[in-house]
Amino acid sequence: MQRGILLFLCTLVLGRTAVVYNKCRITRALNDKLLYDKRLTYMGDYFPKDYKIFVRYEEVLRCQNITSLNNQGITVEELRYLWGIINEEILIKIKKVLPDRHPSMGYIMELQKIFKELLRDDIEIQTEIIQDIMERLSRADDIGPWKSVRPKALLDNCYRVLHALYEEECNLCKPRSEAEDDTLCPPETTPPITNSSSHDQR
């Protein structure tokens, strides 16, 4: 009996390890694609100066938004899913404004493939806060409010939040270049994201 229980527990641990390994493999690939030089080239240099696209307010997802939601009891799993869904939609919006032969088209399509793999496993959203955000994101395109944001700024946010949500678990590397220093979440203003299971929504 005890041997059977031990075998079952070992199977659970190995399964969990395999899931984490696969998730981290995907996030490391995403991290490499979102490094500063790539964002600067494909989302900055290849766009007209001050070019902006319209996104919903909820799609401007910064580290402080993630930290605030985490402090309200939202779990890391839900935050990761929200971040993935939002950035998947952002990539669709960026792709829509690109001509077919635009030099950034291939880059956006590669990012879309990575996010598709990252979001392959759906999760059940249990907290009302995240449900409300997801509902606002799913509204018809003609309903605002909207905000105009540079494509690079959107992917800068994506990269910062990636590190906030996955850096510790997946051991993501921090770029050493001075140009990248201000694109990571400042530790003095952004507390570590905790995997809280409570759901205090007051």
Automatic annotation (TrEMBL):
Extent of the signal sequence: 1-15
Gene Ontology CC entries for this record: extracellular space
For this entry, the protein name equals Interleukin 34
Region Disordered, as annotated, extends over: 177-202
Q: Gene3D superfamilies from the xrefs?
A: Interleukin-34
What are the record keywords, sorted?
Signal
Biological process GO annotation list? positive regulation of cell population proliferation; positive regulation of macrophage differentiation; positive regulation of monocyte differentiation
Q: Which PANTHER family match?
A: INTERLEUKIN-34 (PTHR28606:SF1)
Q: Name the source organism.
A: Xenopus laevis (African clawed frog)
**Keyword Ubl conjugation tagged:** no
